[in-house]
Amino acid sequence: MKNGFLVDWEAVPGDCPKCMARGGECTYGGPDAEFACDCSGGKCGTKGNGRKIPLIVSISVAASLLLPCIYVLVWHRQKLEFFLCKKTSSAIEENIEALILAHGSLAPKRYRYSEVTKITSSLNIKLGEGGYGMVFKGRLDDGRLVAVKFLHDSKGDGEEFVNEVMSIGRTSHINIVSLFGFCLEGSKRALIYEYMSNGSLDKYIYTENPKAVLGWDKLYTIAIGIARGLEYLHHSCNTRIVHFDIKPQNILLDQNFHPKIADFGLAKLCHMKESKLSMTGARGTPGFIAPEVHSRTFGVVSTKADVYSYGMMLLEMVGGRKNVNSAAQESSEKYFPHWIYDHFGQEDGLQACEVTRENEGIAKKLSVIGLSCIQILPMHRPTIGKVMEMFERGSDELDMPPRQNFSQILSSTQFECGNHEHD
Fold this sequence. Notes:
Keywords: ATP-binding, Glycoprotein, Kinase, Membrane, Nucleotide-binding, Receptor, Serine/threonine-protein kinase, Signal, Transferase, Transmembrane, Transmembrane helix. One of its GO terms (molecular function) is protein serine/threonine kinase activity. By secondary structure, the protein is an alpha+beta fold. The protein is built from 15 helices and 13 strands. Helix 8 (216-236) runs antiparallel to helix 10 and helix 8 (216-236) packs antiparallel against helix 14 (384-392).
């Protein structure tokens, strides 16, 4: 012992340098012969404690990063919504940019919101309001009058806005309303259309005597114009467009009462080779929605859905009354198409609809075409092209279609769901 002795020991790699870095001395002792770091005030920590320190530091760092994140999620959820909305807006922007790129100089012009308010003189003249939003009269720098539609749907996914810009932006027809421009600025969305001085068709047919205002010849011309517009959408456009909301309120009349189809918010695009559409849920206005749009039991959804809506509109033009009427539903008043059938069967014909002998041919033709278009099964309806052919024939050459009965059709053993659908 006087000469001393050698002790052979091995410190855990990394422990001794850490100890010395803290001003301690590396020692070896204790009942378990463990490494220890000897500081002036005692041991700085055992081997086990030395390994726990990095873990504690890591947890502290993670907590310091996580707590602000939790704070943001809990107390600033509106900021999260902002980022989600921004993502949705980006998708809308991509669709709009694709439209502009595809059409070049022919694409509708994009306006800033400040420009739109200037066009409308700070929303000075209100033309109308609906579930979609509000419409104001305005004037472009070149003097053209316009109707500016401001959309309510400022949150959502913007489907109706994109539908309207993408679909109507592809069209160019005398019977389709022209879209001059649009505004997409955050949640602010607006569409700038040509101004139609005579408003919508509904205010002329839902009166005590609509024929006294327009006359049967004018109604007939309007009916043909709408059919031409639909034929263009269904067959002449680069991409087939199904409107899904044909009704008098969406038919606008210019200064010469030429009709133009408007409001493409519910429209769907499909390739020309496709004869049917895939869609979820019904779309349209009660009274004008085709049965197959409500239930696929009646057949596939196609352009024939627009034909059905068009037929209902023709009957309203003849009868001067709505096919959906809350007062009528509460009374014993008949289903509107049946009312038309019954008046055809009476001696006075359609005189209840202010039809004179000289106008009887026009009224009969509109009625027969309308009833043909509202056949319950889409395969029994004409295409809009066939409708145009029917207009070219005399009223005596058109056969009255069979009276419709939902229960009989549903129970028919010959009913095949859309197998004979042709467009």
